[in-house]
Amino acid sequence: MPYLALVFCTLIWGATFPATKVALTQVQPFTFLLLRFLLGTLLVFGVMLALRGQLRAERQVLRMSVIATGFLFMGYATQTVGLRYTTASNSAFITALYVVFVPLVLRRFDGRTWLSAFIALSGLWFLVDPLVSVNPGDLWTLACAAAFAGHIACLEKFSRRGASPSILAWQMLFMTSVLVPAMALEAPNAAELAPTSNLLIALLICGVLATGALAAQIWGQKFVAAQRVALIFILEPVFAAWMAWMVLGEQLGPRGVLGSGLILVAVLLGSVTRTEARVEAASHTPVPG
After folding, report:
1. Tell me, what DSSP letter sits at residue 193?
2. In the chain, count of helices (H) and strands (E)?
3. Cβ contact 63:174 at 8 Å
4. How far apart are CA 235 and CA 224, in angstroms?
5. Is 10 exposed, middle or buried (0-12, 13-18, 19+ CB in 10 A)?
6. Interhelix angle for 88-95 vs 136-158, to 10°?
């Protein structure tokens, strides 16, 4: 069951790339992020209230939530800004490099990790083509991949200490709080906030469904090692590229296809290591098939 939940995450997050790309034609990055996380926060606290869940506020829970939120904010901020300047497909495949970064963050080194890193950088070279131009959106997205790697590594450690619902709720609340002053700097006008069909659909996908996906990720990482989670997440850019083609008509081109393929190979190779079984066994929780 945890594996199915994580596959659900990749499908939803794949859909967020074209959805966000469309939304950014109307609103600025931090304004959209505030709207999606405000909606997600209301949803999480509404569910907790309906289920009579208890929001834990012990120092350890708050500390874990603050650390995880820091990585989450950096990830979403750089990804959303990057999407203003690059394609949804490029953003998805570059974001997938967090799968290669995860073992580096966790200091789980072996020859396969370094080989996957080399292949990933080669794929990124073909995808971005820096000899022609350096797209600032691609660079922002590369920073996003590193931030999300830190978030995945945090969740492996924190989710197994209990209080997963509270960690989710605090992350959503902290994200919303941080984004209020960020949105104020953008000073959005009334036209940007108009409830158009594009904005409402994007908020449904990114604010409601993606919040459910984050909850599923936090729960799933109680049972599945971070690197195996990363392996499952290689489906995300595939779903994103397919949806970007369906919705936005984006085309990768020969170099893009080659680069994306190399990144997927690197992601697959780098996320399967000998440490997985030991990490999952360390959780003292049986991993359902």
Report:
1. T
2. 14, 0
3. no
4. 16
5. buried
6. 40
Please give the model's pTM, rounded to 2 decimal places.
0.76
* 220 vs 8: CA distance, rounded Å: 11
Among the listed residues 172, 175, 212, 161, the one whose alpha carbon sits nearest the alpha carbon of residue 58: 161
Q: Which helix (H) or strand (E) holds 258?
A: helix 253-270
Tokens encoding 126: 């073909």
Residue 182: both structure tokens together? 């960020």
- Give the Cα separation of 178 and 34 in Å (integer): 9
Contact 92, 241 (CB under 8 A): yes
pLDDT tens across 1-38, in order? 777 888 888 889 889 989 998 999 999 999 999 999 99
Give dist(CA 186, CA 211) in Å, integer.
Answer: 24
Give the pLDDT band (50/70/90) at residue 131. low
Looking up tokens 């990790």 gives: 113
Distance from C-alpha of 265 to C-alpha of 272, rounded to nearest angstrom: 11
Give φ, ψ of 249 to 5 degrees: 70, 25
Report which of 154, 49, 33, 135 is spatially closest to residue 89, judged by C-alpha positions: 135
- Please return the burial class of 157, using the count of CB atoms within 10 Å of its CB with bins 0-12, 13-18 and 19+: middle
**DSSP 8-state code for residue 86:** S
Torsion sign (Cα): 238, 245, 12, 126? positive
